Amino acid sequence: MQRLEDRVALVTGAASGIGEATAHRLAAEGATVFVTDLQDDLGEKVVASIRDEGGTAEYAHLDVASEAGWQEVMERVRAEQGRLDILVNNAGMGDMSPIEDTSLADWERTIAVDQTGVFLGMKAAAALLKASGHGSVINISSIFGTVGGFGTTPAYHAAKGAVRLLTKNTALHWAREGVRVNSIHPGFIETPILTTVKGTEFEQVMTSWTPMSRLGRPEEIAAGVAYLASDDASYVTGSELYIDGGYTAR
Ligand code: NAD
Predict the structure, then answer these.
(1) Pocket of ligand 1 (CB under 6 A)
(2) Is 156 one of the catalytic residues?
(3) Can you give the pTM of this predicted structure?
(4) 213: how many CB neighbours lie within 10 A of its CB?
(5) What's 177's DSSP letter?
(6) H/E element holding 225?
(7) Model confidence over 14-25: pLDDT tens digits?
(8) What torsion, rounded to 10 degrees, do the Cα atoms 203, 205, 209, 211 define?
C-alpha cells in the first residue's frame, strides 16, 4: 500500500538500526526520503539500497545537535522538494555509567543529541510541516523515557523523558495547524546500539525482563513510524506508542 505517495520525509540517524529500517519502510510506502546522519558512507549505502528497491531517497549530512546543520538541511529540502511532510527524530546515543561516574561533558553531549536535537529538528522544520497539510512528527523516545530501567544511564533517561513531554507540548501547540506529533517508545531492539551487550549476560537480562522473551527488530519500530506518519493516524496526536514486547505492561 502506497500510504505515503507524494510525501517527503526526513529521518535522522538513518544510516543504521531503527533509522535505516524506517527510511526503507517510508520509501517502500511511497515517500521521498532524506536519509540523514553523521556516518556519511553508511548513509549513502542506505540511499543506494533504497534506490535499488525502486524507492526515492537522498543523503544529507546532519549532526542533530547543530542548529546551523538543521538550517542547512531544511534549506536543501525546501529547494529540492519544496515540502516536508514527515519528520522522524530518531538519532540517538547513550551514556553508560551510573550518576556518580557520569562526567558533565558526557551528560551534556547526550542531552545535546537525544533531547536538544529533537527540539532543534521540530523548530527548524516547523514552517514546512505546517505548510504540508499532512504534517507528522515522530520522536523516537524509549521505554527508558518513562521508567527508570536499570538505574544507570541518567542522561539518556533524562533526555528520553524530556522527549516524551516535549512531544505532547508541541502536539498541543500544533493541534490546529495540521501537524501531528507523537512519540514512539521502543523496548530492547537488536541494532548496533546494543552491539556491546550482544551475547553477554546483559542480553539475557534484557530478554528475561521482556514478557515476549526476545529482542525487537528495527522493522517492528519502522512499522509504527509508518502508521503514525500516515493518514491512518489522522486523529492521533500527543500520544505514546510503546513497541516493547510488553516491557512497560508489567
Ligand atoms: P544505532 O546506533 O543503530 O543508530 C543511531 C544512529 O544515530 C547512528 O547511525 C548514529 O550515527 C546516529 N547519530 C548519533 N549521534 C548523532 C548525531 N549527533 N547526529 C546525527 N546522527 C547521529 O541505534 P538505534 O538502536 O537504531 O537507535 C535509534 C534510536 O532509537 C535512538 O534514539 C535510540 O535511543 C532509540 N532507542 C533504541 C533502542 C534499542 O534498543 N536499540 C531502544 C529504545 C530507543
Answers:
(1) 12-13, 15-19, 37-39, 62-65, 90-93, 113, 140, 142, 186, 188-189, 191-194
(2) yes
(3) 0.98
(4) 10
(5) T
(6) helix 218-229
(7) 999 999 999 999
(8) 50
